[in-house]
Design goal:
11 helices, five-stranded mixed sheet, Peroxisomal Thiolase, Chain A, domain 1, about 325 residues, four-stranded mixed sheet, binds oxa(dethia)-CoA
């Protein structure tokens, strides 16, 4: 029997219908389509009017299981990457299991901000590789609009809502997750955070009045760390697996800023055609960006394609996954 690897065998996304364009935002805050497009690459983002993160995640998982013809009762483990859980507890993963009917699964959330899907995929793959489980669902979802201040032009133009889910199954053909490098540095927490609502600063009249429940970001500082670390970790995973730029079929980058994506691709020696980009349509959906890219590009992926998934986010957290795509659409 060959070595068991954890392969993605299906992917499905969900984005809310309502679109918030750059022009719409220019009516709310002092900004312009020109500024947002040139600084970030974003043209529009999706906004969830009613419902929570678990509703987007459940919609993605239901569609995924339907298209694969899999009974929800077959799923053994569900991991959700999110920083916008429905509640501090219970976990959003528990709620998604209930909404989808995955009654035999155990489940938990991973909080690693924009690296949430990388962290969840890496940990989920361990349960397949060990032989413990045969069917694991990994989700990246965020309803960023629930923690965005629409009076703050430095953050409200960036983020959007969305979810993506993948199914992991054992593979003995040499495809699936080959390697991962994950990093974190809590010293970066001051630059990107939601200050209030946790045990350090519980909700009070004062925290609400001071708008402390919204995302606060020092954009330039985060940008510098993101450019360096996302490019470094992507190059590192190529080097340690002896991959040249010719070997890599696709870069799947976190969609935070087109300039960060370009810098990462350049460092890896990749041309634009090999880079998945959908930031113009969805903005930054935090844990949702990577599975939403896989969903959008699924029809172009071929069995054996070499993918490098790479992200950087709040925490700081960052990392890269090297995987070989396991199926033709
Ligand atoms: O996904 C998690 C990780 N997050 C990231 O990776 C985000 C990293 N950071 C970024 O992507 C960029 O720093 C931003 C897109 C957030 C900001 O772009 P920037 O080129 O770094 O702009 P800046 O913060 O240096 O601001 C430049 C100017 C400032 O005005 P002054 O001081 O030069 O007069 C800002 O006040 O642009 C101003 N500005 C805006 N102007 C119009 C900031 N936001 C806006 C806006 N519209 N929305």
């Amino acid at each position: 029997m060959g070595k068991i690897t954890a392969a993605i065998t299906a992917v499905q996304g969900y984005v809310p219908e309502h679109i918030l364009s750059n022009e719409d935002l220019a009516k709310l805050v002092d900004t312009s389509d020109e500024w947002i497009t040139s600084r970030t690459g974003i043209k529009e983002r999706r906004i969830m009017k009613d419902g929570a993160s678990s509703d987007m995640a459940a919609a993605a998982v239901k569609a995924l299981l339907e298209k694969k013809g899999i009974d929800p009762l077959e799923i053994e483990l569900v991991i959700v990457g999110t920083v916008t859980p429905d509640h501090p507890f219970p976990s959003t993963a528990n709620i998604v299991c209930d909404k989808v009917g995955m009654k035999n699964a155990w489940s938990y959330d991973v909080n690693a901000a924009c690296s949430g899907f990388l962290y969840a995929l890496s940990t989920g793959s361990q349960f397949i590789e060990s032989g413990k489980h045969k069917k694991v669902i990994v989700i990246g979802v965020d309803k960023m609009t629930s923690i965005i201040d629409y009076q703050d032009r430095t953050t409200c133009v960036i983020f959007g809502d969305g979810a993506g889910a993948v199914l992991l199954e054992p593979n003995e053909e040499g495809n699936g997750v080959m390697d991962f490098i994950l990093r974190s540095d809590g010293a970066g927490r001051q630059y990107l955070q939601q200050p209030a609502g946790g045990s350090a600063m519980p909700a009070s009249v004062e925290t609400v009045e001071n708008r402390m429940h919204y995302v606060k970001q020092e954009g330039q500082a985060v940008f510098k760390f993101a450019v360096t670390n996302m490019a470094d970790v992507s190059a590192e995973i190529m080097e340690r697996n002896n991959l040249s730029s010719d070997d890599v079929s696709w870069l799947v980058p976190h969609q935070a800023n087109l300039r960060i994506i370009d810098a990462t691709a350049n460092r890896m020696g990749l041309t634009k055609e090999k880079v998945m980009i959908n930031i113009q349509r969805y903005g930054n959906t935090t844990a949702g960006t990577l599975p939403l890219c896989l969903w959008d590009y699924e029809s172009q992926l071929k069995k054996g394609d070499v993918l490098i998934l790479s992200a950087f986010g709040g925490g700081f957290t960052w990392g890269a996954i090297y995987l070989k795509w396991a199926y033709n659409s």
